[in-house]
Amino acid sequence: MSEPHLLPLLDAPPPERRDAARNRERLLGAAKELVERDGAHAVTMDAVATAAGVGKGTLFRRFESREGLMAAVLNHSESEWQAQVMSGPPPLGPGAEPWDRLLVFGRTRLETTLLHAELIREAGRSGARASGAYSFAATHVRYLLSQLRVSGDIPLLAVAILAPLELPILEQVSLDGFPVDRFYDGWVDLARRVVGRSA
Q: In which residue ranges does the UniProt entry place its DNA-binding region annotation (predicted)?
Protein backbone atom coordinates (compact mmCIF):
# COMPACT_ATOMS: atom_id res chain seq x y z
CA MET A 1 0.00 0.00 0.00
CA SER A 2 1.39 3.39 -0.92
CA GLU A 3 1.54 6.43 1.34
CA PRO A 4 -1.93 8.04 1.40
CA HIS A 5 -2.54 11.49 0.06
CA LEU A 6 -2.76 13.59 3.20
CA LEU A 7 -4.79 16.76 3.24
CA PRO A 8 -3.10 20.09 3.87
CA LEU A 9 -3.62 21.66 7.28
CA LEU A 10 -5.98 24.29 5.96
CA ASP A 11 -7.92 24.67 2.73
CA ALA A 12 -5.79 26.32 0.07
CA PRO A 13 -6.43 30.07 0.11
CA PRO A 14 -7.41 31.91 -3.06
CA PRO A 15 -4.50 33.30 -5.08
CA GLU A 16 -2.99 36.39 -3.49
CA ARG A 17 -1.75 39.57 -5.08
CA ARG A 18 2.00 39.85 -4.86
CA ASP A 19 1.91 42.74 -2.37
CA ALA A 20 -0.66 40.93 -0.21
CA ALA A 21 1.52 37.81 -0.17
CA ARG A 22 4.54 39.93 0.82
CA ASN A 23 2.59 41.54 3.64
CA ARG A 24 1.37 38.17 4.86
CA GLU A 25 4.91 36.75 4.98
CA ARG A 26 6.21 39.89 6.67
CA LEU A 27 3.49 39.73 9.31
CA LEU A 28 3.94 36.02 9.95
CA GLY A 29 7.71 36.44 10.19
CA ALA A 30 7.35 39.30 12.66
CA ALA A 31 4.82 37.38 14.75
CA LYS A 32 7.02 34.27 14.82
CA GLU A 33 10.06 36.28 15.95
CA LEU A 34 8.06 37.99 18.70
CA VAL A 35 6.61 34.65 19.87
CA GLU A 36 10.09 33.13 20.04
CA ARG A 37 11.53 36.17 21.83
CA ASP A 38 8.75 37.16 24.24
CA GLY A 39 6.38 34.19 24.38
CA ALA A 40 3.01 33.95 22.67
CA HIS A 41 1.09 35.42 25.63
CA ALA A 42 3.03 38.71 25.35
CA VAL A 43 2.56 39.29 21.62
CA THR A 44 0.14 42.09 20.72
CA MET A 45 -1.31 43.05 17.36
CA ASP A 46 0.28 46.50 17.72
CA ALA A 47 3.72 44.96 18.27
CA VAL A 48 3.38 42.68 15.24
CA ALA A 49 2.21 45.50 12.95
CA THR A 50 5.07 47.73 14.11
CA ALA A 51 7.70 45.00 13.74
CA ALA A 52 6.44 44.15 10.25
CA GLY A 53 6.19 47.80 9.17
CA VAL A 54 2.57 47.25 8.15
CA GLY A 55 -0.56 49.08 9.23
CA LYS A 56 -2.65 47.53 11.99
CA GLY A 57 -5.68 47.54 9.69
CA THR A 58 -3.78 45.35 7.21
CA LEU A 59 -2.97 42.93 10.01
CA PHE A 60 -6.62 42.65 11.07
CA ARG A 61 -7.85 42.32 7.49
CA ARG A 62 -5.44 39.46 6.94
CA PHE A 63 -5.89 37.51 10.20
CA GLU A 64 -9.14 38.98 11.64
CA SER A 65 -8.07 38.64 15.29
CA ARG A 66 -5.14 37.96 17.57
CA GLU A 67 -6.30 34.34 17.86
CA GLY A 68 -6.33 34.11 14.07
CA LEU A 69 -2.76 35.41 13.91
CA MET A 70 -1.58 32.96 16.57
CA ALA A 71 -3.33 30.14 14.69
CA ALA A 72 -1.49 31.14 11.50
CA VAL A 73 1.87 31.04 13.30
CA LEU A 74 0.94 27.65 14.75
CA ASN A 75 -0.17 26.43 11.33
CA HIS A 76 3.22 27.37 9.88
CA SER A 77 4.99 25.22 12.49
CA GLU A 78 2.53 22.38 11.96
CA SER A 79 3.14 22.53 8.21
CA GLU A 80 6.89 22.08 8.73
CA TRP A 81 6.30 19.01 10.91
CA GLN A 82 3.71 17.66 8.46
CA ALA A 83 6.23 17.95 5.61
CA GLN A 84 8.71 15.86 7.61
CA VAL A 85 6.08 13.16 8.14
CA MET A 86 5.10 13.09 4.46
CA SER A 87 8.45 13.38 2.74
CA GLY A 88 11.24 13.82 5.28
CA PRO A 89 13.89 11.24 6.09
CA PRO A 90 12.94 8.00 7.85
CA PRO A 91 11.96 6.93 10.40
CA LEU A 92 9.52 9.86 10.70
CA GLY A 93 9.19 10.09 6.93
CA PRO A 94 8.58 7.26 4.44
CA GLY A 95 10.98 4.36 4.12
CA ALA A 96 11.03 2.92 7.65
CA GLU A 97 8.99 0.09 9.13
CA PRO A 98 5.49 1.22 10.20
CA TRP A 99 6.15 0.42 13.87
CA ASP A 100 9.33 2.54 13.87
CA ARG A 101 7.46 5.35 12.14
CA LEU A 102 4.67 5.19 14.73
CA LEU A 103 7.16 5.41 17.61
CA VAL A 104 8.94 8.44 16.13
CA PHE A 105 5.60 10.00 15.22
CA GLY A 106 4.52 9.74 18.87
CA ARG A 107 7.77 11.20 20.19
CA THR A 108 7.83 14.14 17.77
CA ARG A 109 4.12 14.84 18.26
CA LEU A 110 4.66 14.93 22.00
CA GLU A 111 7.66 17.24 21.63
CA THR A 112 5.93 19.65 19.24
CA THR A 113 2.85 19.81 21.45
CA LEU A 114 4.99 20.71 24.47
CA LEU A 115 7.10 23.15 22.44
CA HIS A 116 4.05 24.99 21.11
CA ALA A 117 1.81 24.62 24.18
CA GLU A 118 1.55 28.34 24.82
CA LEU A 119 0.93 29.08 21.16
CA ILE A 120 -1.82 26.42 21.04
CA ARG A 121 -3.49 28.05 24.05
CA GLU A 122 -3.22 31.54 22.57
CA ALA A 123 -4.67 30.37 19.24
CA GLY A 124 -7.81 29.37 21.15
CA ARG A 125 -10.74 28.29 19.01
CA SER A 126 -8.90 29.39 15.87
CA GLY A 127 -6.14 26.87 16.57
CA ALA A 128 -5.14 24.66 13.64
CA ARG A 129 -4.84 21.71 16.01
CA ALA A 130 -8.61 21.67 16.37
CA SER A 131 -9.15 21.06 12.67
CA GLY A 132 -6.75 20.37 9.82
CA ALA A 133 -3.69 19.44 11.85
CA TYR A 134 -5.58 16.87 13.89
CA SER A 135 -7.16 15.44 10.74
CA PHE A 136 -3.71 15.04 9.21
CA ALA A 137 -2.35 13.28 12.30
CA ALA A 138 -5.38 10.98 12.51
CA THR A 139 -5.10 10.06 8.83
CA HIS A 140 -1.42 9.24 9.24
CA VAL A 141 -1.96 7.09 12.33
CA ARG A 142 -4.81 5.20 10.62
CA TYR A 143 -2.47 4.56 7.69
CA LEU A 144 0.28 3.21 9.98
CA LEU A 145 -2.18 1.00 11.89
CA SER A 146 -3.41 -0.42 8.58
CA GLN A 147 0.20 -1.08 7.54
CA LEU A 148 0.68 -2.91 10.85
CA ARG A 149 -2.41 -5.03 10.08
CA VAL A 150 -4.13 -4.01 13.29
CA SER A 151 -7.59 -5.48 13.68
CA GLY A 152 -10.52 -3.63 15.19
CA ASP A 153 -12.02 -0.20 14.63
CA ILE A 154 -9.02 1.61 13.15
CA PRO A 155 -10.47 5.17 13.36
CA LEU A 156 -11.28 4.76 17.07
CA LEU A 157 -7.93 3.11 17.81
CA ALA A 158 -6.20 6.04 16.09
CA VAL A 159 -8.11 8.43 18.36
CA ALA A 160 -6.95 6.44 21.40
CA ILE A 161 -3.33 6.70 20.27
CA LEU A 162 -3.56 10.42 19.48
CA ALA A 163 -5.49 11.61 22.53
CA PRO A 164 -2.60 11.47 25.03
CA LEU A 165 -0.45 13.59 22.68
CA GLU A 166 -2.88 16.52 22.65
CA LEU A 167 -2.45 19.48 24.98
CA PRO A 168 -5.53 19.07 27.25
CA ILE A 169 -4.42 15.54 28.23
CA LEU A 170 -0.77 16.55 28.62
CA GLU A 171 -1.75 19.46 30.84
CA GLN A 172 -3.88 17.21 33.03
CA VAL A 173 -1.14 14.61 33.43
CA SER A 174 1.57 17.21 34.03
CA LEU A 175 -0.33 18.33 37.13
CA ASP A 176 0.68 14.98 38.61
CA GLY A 177 4.38 15.68 37.97
CA PHE A 178 4.93 13.23 35.12
CA PRO A 179 8.37 13.63 33.51
CA VAL A 180 8.29 13.63 29.69
CA ASP A 181 10.22 10.36 29.35
CA ARG A 182 7.82 8.58 31.69
CA PHE A 183 4.88 9.95 29.72
CA TYR A 184 6.42 8.79 26.42
CA ASP A 185 7.16 5.33 27.83
CA GLY A 186 3.53 5.08 28.88
CA TRP A 187 2.42 6.15 25.42
CA VAL A 188 4.65 3.47 23.83
CA ASP A 189 3.06 0.88 26.14
CA LEU A 190 -0.39 2.05 24.96
CA ALA A 191 0.70 1.83 21.31
CA ARG A 192 2.06 -1.70 21.86
CA ARG A 193 -1.27 -2.80 23.32
CA VAL A 194 -3.22 -1.31 20.43
CA VAL A 195 -0.91 -2.86 17.85
CA GLY A 196 -0.60 -6.19 19.71
CA ARG A 197 3.16 -6.04 19.88
CA SER A 198 5.14 -7.50 22.79
CA ALA A 199 7.75 -5.40 24.59
A: 44-63
Q: What is the pLDDT of residues 97-134, one digit of tens each?
A: 999 999 999 999 999 999 999 999 898 766 545 567 88
Q: Where in the chain is the domain with CATH 1.10.357?
A: 65-195
How many other β-carbons are positioned within 10 Å of the β-carbon of residue 24? 19
Correct CATH for 65-195 of 1.10.20, 1.10.287, 1.10.357, 3.30.70: 1.10.357
Spatial separation of the C-alpha atoms in residues 110 and 51, rounded to whole Å: 31
Q: Cβ(145)–Cβ(157) under 8 Å?
A: yes
